[in-house]
Design goal:
Blueprint (H helix, E strand, L loop, with lengths): L2 H9 L5 E5 L3 H9 L7 H12 L8 E6 L1 H4 L9 H7 L3 E5 L4 E3 L7 E3 L5 H10 L4 E8 L8 H20 L3 E8 L7 H21 L8 E2 L16 H15 L6 E4 L6 H14 L5 E6 L1 H11 L6 H18 L12
Parallel strand pairs: 1-2, 1-10, 2-3, 3-6, 6-7, 7-8, 8-9, 9-10
Antiparallel strand pairs: 4-5
Bound molecules: 1,3-dihydroxyacetonephosphate.
Length: 336
């Protein structure tokens, strides 16, 4: 097995998933503001390093996606953060896109930037210890959108990114995110997700990306967040797996979902239901940001002496999602 396929399979090992802690400075600033914490390089490092040092985390977390700043920061252990993670059995990863910007000619739609200079940055990131990378494309549902233009240019950019990652020894996590904003029914999300994933795999194949060496990070197929009659957990699991089976080649080692603004408990319940349905050619796992961190951020709220509670809150969500990897979660475990 190639080195990258081995790494990709390690990231989706049984019971384990990925912690996304790669919020840009702007996004982490908003998250900190929600708990009245000033966002500085020091507070961001204290929070993230504290979470990563949670006891036993590597039992359920295979890798952490870092932001550029964090990859260069020093842990309270005295080690560089990527080295500290690796020493604890957690693979360090890095977000390498530079954000989603307005797509010219397509009002209300976005294109993710960051290809210029990417090869040189990947070489540097690998030297700093990163083993995998992430690039997020954003697809918006609305009146007459997503356009074919938006889907195609984002798929093209994701494939350019993935090919460069493989060339430079990093596993690319390919993330086409169809946002859940809107009042649309689940069928609308299915159609947009099907189009986005079809275009992504066509671009990956065209650009000669070995599919054994990547992970897909998709949205789940959900009703819009303002849909008056949202689909239930079982329907979400059925439609999400149906969409994946129609679009994702079996060579891909794993699917690592984003949470996308779902509540942490619902994100776990959906993952659990999919693994209960089973019968998939790929591992079905998680790469959650908010759905792993939300209770931890609240528990910490900027207070160093509350970091132990934050660590416990993160560990709990990681453990429950770890159980959901085998369909062994139930909501009665939330109270325990
Ligand atoms: P959420 O799980 O909060 O959507 O974040 C995952 C992620 O990494 C988005 O790019």
């Amino acid at each position: 097995m190639s080195k990258l396929e081995t790494t990709a399979r390690q990231l989706v090992a049984p019971k384990k998933g990925i912690l996304a802690a790669d919020e840009s400075t702007g996004t982490i600033g908003k998250r900190f503001a929600s708990v009245n914490v000033d966002s500085t390089a020091e507070s961001r490092c204290a929070y993230r390093d504290g979470l990563f040092l949670a006891d036993g985390l590597s039992e359920f977390v295979s890798g952490v996606i870092l932001y550029d700043e964090t990859l260069r920061q020093t842990s309270s252990t005295g080690q560089p953060i990527p080295e500290m993670l690796a020493a604890r059995g957690i693979l360090p990863g890095i977000k390498v896109d530079t954000g989603a910007k307005e797509l010219a000619g397509c009002p209300g739609e976005k294109i993710t930037e960051g290809l210029d200079g990417l090869r040189d940055r990947l070489v540097e990131y690998a030297g700093l210890g990163a083993r995998f990378a992430k690039w997020r494309a954003v697809i918006t549902i609305g009146d007459g959108i997503p356009s074919e233009t938006c889907i195609d240019v984002n798929a093209h950019a994701l494939a350019r990114y993935a090919a460069l990652c493989v060339e430079n020894g990093l596993v690319p996590i390919v993330e086409p995110e169809v946002l859940m904003d809107g009042a649309h029914p689940i069928e609308t999300c299915y159609a947009a997700t099907h189009r986005a994933q079809t275009a992504v795999f066509a671009a990956l194949v065209k650009q000669r990306v070995p599919l054994e060496q990547i992970l897909l990070k998709p949205n789940m197929v959900l009703s819009g967040s303002d849909c008056p009659k949202p689909a239930d957990v079982h329907e979400v699991a059925v439609q999400t797996l149906r969409c994946l089976k129609n679009t994702v080649p079996a060579a891909v080692p794993g699917i690592v979902f984003l949470s996308g603004g779902q509540s942490d408990e619902l994100a776990t319940a959906h993952l659990n239901e999919m693994n209960k349905l089973g019968d998939c050619p790929w591992e079905i796992s998680f790469s959650y940001g908010r759905a792993l961190q939300a209770p931890a951020l609240k528990a910490w709220a900027g207070q160093a002496d509350q970091m132990v509670d934050a660590q416990a809150a993160l560990f709990k969500r990681a453990r429950l999602n770890g159980l959901a990897r085998s369909g062994d979660y139930s909501d009665s475990l939330e109270a325990a």
